[in-house]
Specification:
It is a multi-pass membrane protein. InterPro entries: Bact_polysacc_biosynth/exp, LPS_length_determ_N. One of its GO terms (molecular function) is protein tyrosine kinase activity. There is one protein chain. The chain is of the alpha+beta class. 64% of the residues lie in helices and 10% in strands. The protein is built from 13 helices and seven strands.
């Protein structure tokens, strides 16, 4: 028992002695540590100057609920009970994870890349802006099939060559994998955040806003497609019946003129007028019903609100990860100083 206690005391004494020796050794090497730390500080300042900042454009928006339609839903349900089809929304196709994937889909990203933006007084596409930012054209100068390759604003995607498809695919891959993120910060909150990161501040902002606009328009067109088609058909039918009714009313007037002061005994000649009156009554009833359906269809179409209800939009200057010179100086100094201490400690132990 006493021997074990004595061994513990010796071990503790040796540890303290080694710590003092190590501390004394580092004090003797203080010049080396300071010099290495100063070199690291200078390198940190240089890194902060040379490193290009990454700008982040952030847009937040709320999702449309679409579940509660209040009194309107009751009215539309009552209309359906009587056999009146006023159309319906596109359902919940693009909600939650589906919506996130819609933002990252190649269709939406490519549509966004072909939208026009102003740069130095010239109108170019976002795809051209991306190529300029990443200096791809310098690598294309010696390639004949790429040297004259351009992406004009609002170009017809169907007429693109295989090479253009390939380049656009590379741009899409680069953006989705390293620049574009879409998701909910918290599962309980139905607010989605979209972030676009880029070395170019204006590109990050323009791409973020344009992508949100393209997705919003695509969603609204998809969601209201059935209602729009239904309203279009009803409008065409209403115009057709209105024309028939006007023709029938004119026919009644003409028939009455032809039978003016007609002998009451000659009832056969009054037949065209009676037929026209039946047409007027029938077309009036049909037109009345079509107008009802058209108005309900218009209400249905108006109730389809855009999916993206913008909350916060990217505003210049954008958030960036630029390292300050003071941060680079202190960070580089501490890092290299720490590494110098480790290197000298290893050297003392093993060499």
């Amino acid at each position: 028992m006493e021997q074990q206690q004595q061994n513990n005391e010796i071990s503790l004494y040796e540890i303290l002695k080694n710590v003092r020796d190590w501390y004394a050794y580092l004090l003797l090497q203080w010049k080396k540590i300071i010099i290495i730390g100063f070199i690291g500080a200078l390198l940190g300042v240089g890194y902060s100057i040379l490193k290009k900042p990454i700008y982040t454009a952030r847009l937040t928006f709320a999702l449309e609920d679409g579940k509660s339609s209040g009194g309107l839903g009751g009215a539309l349900g009552l209309a359906s009970t009587f056999g009146i089809d006023v159309g319906s929304s596109g359902g919940n196709i693009f909600v939650g994870a589906n919506l996130n994937e819609l933002f990252k889909s190649r269709l939406m990203v490519e549509r966004t890349l072909l939208q026009p933006v102003l740069q130095d007084g010239k109108t170019i596409s976002l795809a051209e802006r991306f190529i300029q930012i990443n200096k791809w054209r310098k690598n294309w100068e010696k390639k004949s099939n790429l040297a004259k390759l351009t992406f004009d604003p609002l170009a017809d995607r169907k007429k693109f060559t295989r090479t253009q498809d390939s380049i656009l695919g590379e741009i899409y891959k680069s953006l989705v994998e390293g620049s574009l993120t879409v998701g909910q910060k918290e599962k309980k909150i139905d607010i989605i955040t979209m972030e676009v990161k880029s070395k170019d501040e204006l590109f990050a902002k323009d791409f973020c806003l344009t992508l949100a606009k393209e997705v919003s328009e695509f969603y609204v067109n998809t969601k209201t497609k059935k209602s729009q088609e239904n309203l279009k058909i009803l409008t065409k039918q209403t115009d057709s019946i209105r024309g028939e009714l006007n023709a029938a009313i004119t026919g009644v007037a003409i028939a009455n003129d032809n039978t003016f002061n007609l002998n009451p005994a000659l009832n056969v000649r009054r037949t065209p007028s009676a037929r026209r009156q039946v047409d007027v009554q029938a077309n009036t009833a049909i037109l009345t019903e079509l107008i009802k359906q058209s108005e309900l269809a218009k209400v249905t179409l108006r109730k389809e609100t855009p999916l993206i209800q913008g909350i916060d939009k990217p505003i210049l200057p954008l958030e960036n990860n630029k390292i300050r010179k003071s941060t680079g100086f202190l960070g580089g100094g501490f890092l290299f100083g720490f590494l110098a201490i480790i290197f000298l400690s290893i050297k003392k132990i093993y060499f």
